[in-house]
Write a structure and sequence with these properties.
CATH topology: 50s Ribosomal Protein L5, Chain: A
Shape: globular
CATH architecture: 2-Layer Sandwich
Number of strands: 5
Strand order of the largest sheet: 2-3-1-5-4
Structural class: alpha+beta
Number of helices: 5
Radius of gyration: 15 Å
Distance between the termini: 5 Å
Strand content: 25-35%
Length: 148
């Protein structure tokens, strides 16, 4: 893979971890696969039946954001990146922020698949001044760098 240009301002990674899941294992897997060095922010919530749910959030900037985004793309593989590109308009908001949702259960098993069910949400905020060519062109170029 070619070096990823530093065109990403921030990446936010978040998910919910239920009481029946191993939170430490999920933290470790996210940290290892996406090269996150910081500890996550956590918030303890209560589910409908009084069960414990942990909301986990990493807020990355600078080089760590770029690295996490690059590693997300590598984990996804070319087939999933193509799938993301095909639905890009559905995944980018009015501020050109890209939203990637990977199935948490599959990610823990080593498969990075796009999923709306129990997702790891990855929010990619580009440096705004670099969006001169539009979101499709910008993200197509970055996603294709992962193919090299």
């Amino acid at each position: 893979m070619q070096a990823m240009p530093r065109e990403i301002q921030a990446v936010e990674i978040s998910c919910f971890i239920h009481a029946t899941e191993n939170a430490e294992m999920i933290f470790r897997i996210l940290s290892e696969r996406l090269a996150i060095s910081q500890a996550p922010e956590t918030e303890e919530l209560e589910g409908h039946f009084g069960n414990r749910i942990l909301h986990v959030r990493y807020h990355l900037t600078g080089e760590e954001a770029t690295t996490a985004f690059r590693n997300t793309l590598l984990c996804m593989g070319s087939e999933r990146r193509s799938e993301l590109l095909a639905k890009l308009e559905e995944s980018v908001d009015e501020h050109n922020v890209l939203y990637i949702r990977l199935g948490k259960q599959e990610f823990v098993k080593g498969n990075a698949v796009l999923s709306q069910v129990d997702p790891i949400r990855i929010r990619v905020k580009p440096k705004g001044f670099l969006m001169k060519t539009g979101a499709r062109s910008f993200y197509t170029r970055l996603l294709n760098l992962a193919n090299d």
